[in-house]
């Protein structure tokens, strides 16, 4: 029999579609154990712990928990606070006062660092506290994981959006540029590739943060595609950078900011990227029908587009976290490893190995020209977006011979 | 027994999620009749007729037709051509040469005008030609219809996007402004209101083209909401206008266009609206976390978000069109009328009564303050978005008493 005491669970950082599955996994698994005297949820992540904003999840009905599990975004609300040493000391003080013996934090790689520091504090004070980091992120950039909960559903949304955009672009041809979030890693933008069904389908070009973006190459490549197909669908990550490794977005903001005499203080820059690229295509390639859209935050919040595989795994990392801590008395970060095609295993890694680190798209996922993805990537991604992914069908009927001369 | 001859069906204007259901309805119903010698599909709308770009849909398998029916965007591709008298004379000439006796055009209100003029040409030439306009539009602005095919699914997408955005805004509070397409009618923007589940849910403010937009009122209203809830989600139509009835968007483009010394030629203006509103909120209300997103074209193309009611009705207007023309020897525009809650009937109206006219949100759908919609509107809309609309659930657990003094 392990530590007797309370559980605190919290959610930090940007929400995902399946983040509540992890919460539910922790809560239901914890409540099974007689060691656990109460299960607290902290409102607004670590801010909630700081302010003692707890709700007693031991008093939450299992039915409602399941419904919440299916609801996107952090049911316990969230925070963007990035605790330093002093902050973590305060967190520990509150946890100790409430007789908390198990701390579960669902978040990205910086959350892992928070958990690590709180764990250090507990060790120094000789206070028995089990601390587990539970991964989540739509960017898929947490190290040691084959992929992270939240990515599969966000990728599915991006893929469905591009599937539709490809059809739209085919029915009213032109150049259509769509910007996808992801400042450092291109996994989400790359997910657009699942829209490529027929050989002439888009996105015809995919630009990722992992490759230097050159305007001249971009224009040349768009022209090639447009000349061949009479249309061009482009997926662009907001994180594309130039030769000096500077974000294209920030260069644009400076230009607009100065030129507009401070009239327009831009709050979100990514839309501007799409429009900028559209305008240079229009000007340089003399193509009339050019437009751009930006996917914005919808892939992390859209209610009604979810990967069942992602949902399932998000639930499991929550359950495993509780099992590792309560039954095996361990600390660490839960990681997902791929064990087959397609199957996964859950392991626990040291918090320090995960904390504050990020990963990016490996070379074998990107084509040599640096403007698309490889089949290897699509093979990697396909199981993650789950079942029931809609396809797109075309008419197959034969042509009718013309009988009049053309005018 | 009516006219013996061929059918031509085409799709015009912006695509919708369910536009192929109407195509399939026409084709399958036409093929049942022994009067119909062939069913042609014109590629790229009226352009296809002009260029004799026909495919023989009598040779399309019913199974593939059903799959295409489920695929968004115009399977026959589309056109933005708006035919004048001379163009329509040419269209008639081609139709006559191919012994076409039935012309079905799936499109918005300007498509109805095309059909009307072609019909006139046929009458003048004493050539027996049945012409039917089949409605479609995501904006819901075709007159004489309770609603039009394409709207229900687009509205569902908007509602699901806002449901998620509301959850996102609740978990990481701030001011979140989302721009929705719709230059003249606010039906699509208004659909965001279905995200309002709990009394503090957003969108807290909805700004439509049907009401004058005043910056001062906007800032005052955002502040009121933010002060009350600590957050604010705003739905804004891209078609909002000032007191002089001028589109806010165009005023911004002028400002940017001139100030940026022509460096940036803006191709799509709607994103700029969101960012402009976000910047004035930031500056005037001194709120730090303010962001904006624009839904863009996704609500008309997204593959995997559809209203079954919309799908069903889109199929039926296609079938009815074929029945009206082939079995009853009539010309006109198919309209949908609401006959119960919830049921519809299909009727045929004169082409001239529909052609070139638009409708907007009636007063009883908009609240007196002009910044939200009424329950009457939500009641009107709810059946159109179909079954299986995802809800959003909240935790209900009780608060835990604090035991430390606050810092």
Automatic annotation (TrEMBL), chains A, B:
State the protein's purpose.
Catalyzes the phosphorylation of D-fructose 6-phosphate, the first committing step of glycolysis. Uses inorganic phosphate (PPi) as phosphoryl donor instead of ATP like common ATP-dependent phosphofructokinases (ATP-PFKs), which renders the reaction reversible, and can thus function both in glycolysis and gluconeogenesis. Consistently, PPi-PFK can replace the enzymes of both the forward (ATP-PFK) and reverse (fructose-bisphosphatase (FBPase)) reactions.
Q: Indicate the annotated site residue(s) for Important for catalytic activity and substrate specificity.
A: 110
> EC no.?
2.7.1.90
Q: Which cofactor does it need?
A: Mg(2+)
Could you tell me what reaction this enzyme catalyses?
beta-D-fructose 6-phosphate + diphosphate = beta-D-fructose 1,6-bisphosphate + phosphate + H(+)
Q: What is this protein called?
A: Pyrophosphate--fructose 6-phosphate 1-phosphotransferase
Q: Binding positions for substrate? A: 137-139, 181-183, 238, 297-300
**Subunit notes for this chain?**
Homodimer.
Checking Gene3D superfamilies in the record gives: 3.40.50.450, Phosphofructokinase domain (3.40.50.460)
State the organism of origin: Dehalobacterium formicoaceticum
Named in its record, the pathway it takes part in is: Carbohydrate degradation; glycolysis; D-glyceraldehyde 3-phosphate and glycerone phosphate from D-glucose: step 3/4
Q: Where in the cell is it found?
A: Cytoplasm
Gene this chain is encoded by:
pfp
Q: Which family does the entry's similarity section mention?
A: Belongs to the phosphofructokinase type A (PFKA) family. PPi-dependent PFK group II subfamily. Clade 'B2' sub-subfamily.
């Amino acid at each position: 029999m392990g530590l007797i005491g309370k559980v605190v669970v919290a959610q930090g950082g940007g929400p995902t579609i399946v983040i509540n599955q992890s919460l539910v996994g922790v809560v239901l698994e914890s409540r099974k154990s007689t060691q656990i005297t109460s299960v607290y949820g902290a409102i607004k992540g670590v801010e909630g712990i700081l302010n003692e904003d707890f709700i007693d999840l031991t008093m939450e009905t299992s039915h409602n928990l399941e419904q919440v599990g299916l609801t996107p975004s952090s049911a316990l609300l969230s925070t963007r606070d990035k605790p330093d040493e002093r902050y973590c000391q305060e967190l520990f003080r509150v946890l100790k006062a409430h007789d908390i013996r198990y701390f579960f934090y669902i978040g990205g790689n910086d959350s892992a660092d928070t958990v690590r520091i709180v764990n250090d504090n507990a060790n120094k004070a000789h206070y028995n506290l089990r601390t587990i980091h539970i991964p989540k992120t739509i960017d898929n950039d947490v190290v040691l994981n084959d992929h992270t909960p939240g990515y599969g559903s966000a990728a599915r949304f991006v893929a469905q959006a591009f599937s539709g955009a490809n059809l739209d672009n085919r029915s009213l041809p032109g150049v259509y540029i769509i910007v996808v979030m992801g400042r450092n890693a291109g996994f989400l933008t790359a997910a657009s590739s699942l829209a490529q069904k027929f050989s002439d389908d888009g996105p015809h070009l995919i630009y990722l943060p992992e490759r230097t973006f050159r305007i001249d190459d971009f224009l040349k490549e768009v022209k090639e595609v447009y000349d061949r197909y009479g249309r061009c669908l482009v997926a662009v990550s907001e994180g594309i950078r130039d030769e000096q490794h500077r974000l294209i977005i920030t260069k644009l903001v400076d230009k607009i900011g100065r030129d507009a005499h401070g009239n327009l203080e831009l709050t979100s820059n990514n839309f501007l990227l799409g429009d900028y690229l559209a305008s240079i295509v229009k000007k340089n390639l003399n193509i009339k029908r050019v437009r751009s859209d930006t996917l914005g935050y919808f892939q992390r919040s859209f209610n009604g587009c979810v990967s069942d595989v992602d949902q399932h795994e998000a639930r499991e990392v929550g359950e495993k976290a509780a099992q590792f801590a309560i039954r095996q008395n361990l600390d660490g970060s839960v990681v997902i490893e791929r064990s087959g095609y397609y199957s996964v295993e859950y392991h626990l890694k040291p918090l320090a190995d995960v904390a504050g680190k990020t990963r990016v798209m490996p070379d074998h996922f990107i084509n040599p020209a640096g403007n698309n993805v490889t089949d290897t990537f699509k093979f990697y991604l396909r199981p993650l977006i789950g079942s029931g992914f809609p396809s797109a069908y075309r008419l197959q009927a034969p042509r009718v011979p013309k009988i009049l001369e053309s005018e």
